[in-house]
Amino acid sequence: MNSTQLKIFAMITMFLDHIGTIFYPEVIAFKIIGRLAFPIFCYFIAEGYLKTRNKKKYALRLLIIALISQLPFIKTFRLAFGENLLLLNTIFDLFLGLIAIWLYDSLKLKHNIIIIWGIAILAFFLRIDGDFMGIFMIYFFFKYHDNFNKMAKKQILLIGISQIIYMLYMLAYGVPLIALLNLQMWEGLFAILALIPIKYYNGKKGKNIKYAFYVFYPLHLLVIYLIKINL
Asked: Pfam family of this protein, just one (predicted)?
């Protein structure tokens, strides 16, 4: 599977996830499929950092798309979660993840893992969709890029810890213990399945769709929003 095929796969799974969130929130299959998208996008942030010739332009593109996407993102997901939703979109997490590995790689500090932790905490307090998990996920994809087995173990551990934190958070906010038996409460674990297509990524570029994701992300949110408000 080349990069073009893997990116298209991730975009399709993300699209299905968002369709499910807005139109079919009770259908868990959409959420399970959608969990595959984010790790793949995180993988390509690490891949992009390692391969791009101009890291400043790469970071700037992500930031611009994050800013452009914020309005369609918040308008769309307020349809599902209410008008009080305050959340920054996923591209901000990808942007901060890129900055994190860039600083980690560039600053020769004795304990430069502090950089990753610091930016992960920042992402959490900024209320970014993906928050700390996205930062660490990008870091592990970068750090163990040439060792799939070690990288996979780190990602599985990260996803597992994130799921436990989510469960504790839900219990702290009054969700009854019996609710933990609902499959929907465990959907985050299905992100582990993203490691399968990543495993079969051959490192080849494929057809050039360099800017497809940048256009697709805000556009698909806008389309979903317009369809929903006109139903």
From this structure: TraX
Q: Report CA-CA distances (Å) from 143 to 112, 137, 204, 224.
A: 12, 10, 20, 36
| Amino acid 207: pLDDT | 81
What residues contact residue 27 under an 8 Å CB cut-off, 6+ apart? Answer: 20
Q: pLDDT for 199-217, tens place per residue?
A: 999 988 878 777 888 899 9
CA triplet 147, 151, 152: central angle to 5 degrees?
120
Task: Count Cβ atoms below 10 Å from residue 59 Cβ, excluding itself.
Answer: 18
Residue 83 in this model has a pLDDT that exceeds 80: yes
Rounded CA separation 22/95 (Å): 25
Three-class secondary structure of residue 91 per DSSP: helix
Give me 136's structure tokens: 């660490």
Residue with tokens 């810890």: 161
| Confidence at residue 113, expressed as pLDDT on a 0 to 100 scale | 94
Pairwise CA distance, residues 56 & 35, whole Å: 29
- The arithmetic mean of pLDDT across residues 113-141, rounded, is 95
pLDDT above 90 (res 31): yes
CA distance linking residue 50 with residue 58, whole number of Å: 11
Torsions phi, psi of 153, nearest 5?
-60, -45
Question: Measured between alpha carbons, how far is 204 from 47 in angstroms, rounded to an integer?
Answer: 12
Instruction: Determine the Cα–Cα distance for residues 24 and 21; give it in Å rounded to an integer.
Output: 6
Supply φ then ψ for residue 222, to 5 degrees.
Answer: -65, -45
For 204, residues 6+ apart whose C-beta sits below 8 A from its C-beta are: 2, 3
How many CA atoms are closer than 13 Å to the CA of 82, on its beta-carbon side? 2
